[in-house]
Amino acid sequence: MRKKNECVLNAQKYEDYVAYQLFLQGFKGIHTTAKTGDYGADILCFDLLRHSCAVQCKLYSRPVGYKAVQEALAGARYYNCNRAIVVCNTRYTKNAIEGAKRLGVELYICQYYPNGGYFEKI
Known about the structure:
With 122 residues, this protein is α/β, with parallel strands linked by helices. It has helices at 11-24, 66-78, 94-103; strands at residues 28-32, 43-46, 52-58, 83-88, 105-111, 118-121. Helix 2 (66-78) packs parallel to helix 3.
């Protein structure tokens, strides 16, 4: 049973929503990568300082683990990006948070609801 404000998205629509949220945060040159063989990056973009960013999106019903951090870092290296970012709709495991801090990978939460949502760095 769905919660009153819950909206079910598929992975593609979630990536599109994350791309939109990045745009609202001031990121530029936003584009999605191939749906398969993306090397760990779903979205590529530039921040306000023109640093290149590789973004890994995770639409999960459970906490996102350390593997997503590794994937984002691999994607950033593959695409020669300055920043590695993971965006998820839930929360992160302790290992993911600790690993991200150690490796310099940024973690964000991005929730979508029909009447609004939020996008924040943790």
